[in-house]
Every structure is written in structure tokens, then in C-alpha cells.
Amino acid sequence: MNRWMLLPAFLAGVLLMLAWQRWQPGSEGGAGDMAQPLYWVAPMDPNYRRDGPGKSPMGMDLVPVYAEDAQTDSPGTVQITAEVMHNLGVRTAQVRRGRLPTTLRTVGYVQVDEDRIRHVHTRVEGWIERLHVRAVGDPVVQGQPLYSLYSPL
Predict the structure, then answer these.
(1) Phi, psi angles (nearest 5°) of residue 8
(2) CA distance 149 to 153
(3) Where are the alpha helices (DSSP H) in 42-143?
(4) What is the dihedral of CA 143, 144, 148, 149, to 10 degrees?
(5) Which of 66, 85, 127, 142: disulfide with 90, CB 3.0–4.6 Å?
């Protein structure tokens, strides 16, 4: 007997859920309600445009451009969302005349130019006791020793 009472309650719940989803704001009521994209662009190259979805030359999915997104800006205009601006830490200010500071502080990395590293392999065992030329750009004359090598053999 309990089974016969649960079946109508279950069916009523399913019908209520379907009705709620259909009348919920923002739900897709029909194909005419959705905005159609004007064209599709590659995310990394806005000049790559297609009429339908697909892949860009870089293998990324094409992004739809809708009428409200399409602008008549000049070529070279960069558009980013507010979220991307926040993540990048972009700050804007009003343009004003003034003096530029003479000191500019920035971050940099000093690395060895591996193309300029040279290894000298001697034919004897030992080690270099003294370097006569220590850096790139030190003046060198013909016949000048570059280093002094000590060999216990």
C-alpha cells in the first residue's frame, strides 16, 4: 500500500521540478531568445575570424563575438576584461604634465652568457694558480700570459 502512495508523490515532485526549471529566469525558453554570435575569433589573434566554431591555428577553441561585444575600435586596440585587469595589477591615472623621475627602480636578473663561456683543457693534471686576465673586456697584448698553471707531475 505504501508503494501506491509514493508513486503519485514522486510523479508530482518530478512535474514540479520540470515546471520550476522551465519558468526559472535566465533559462533557455527557445532558440530565438539567445543572441547569435556575429563571428568567431582566435583568443590569441583577433584577426583570425571564422563564421562558425572551430580551432585556431594554435589549437585553441575559437571564441564567439556577439553584437554587444563587437566594437569599431581602430586596429591594434587591446581589450581585456575587468577580471584580467585586476589579475595583472593594471592601474590607470589621469594624464598630466610633469617631470619624470631621474631614478628608475626595476627588477632584473643577471645571468651568465653561456655562449661566451670557454673551457680550456690542459694536457696535464693540475690547477690554475693565478689568472692574469679575469674578465671579458680586460686588455690583452700578444704574448701576455692568461693564467699560471701548477702541475705536480
Answers:
(1) -65, -35
(2) 12
(3) 82-88
(4) -30
(5) 85
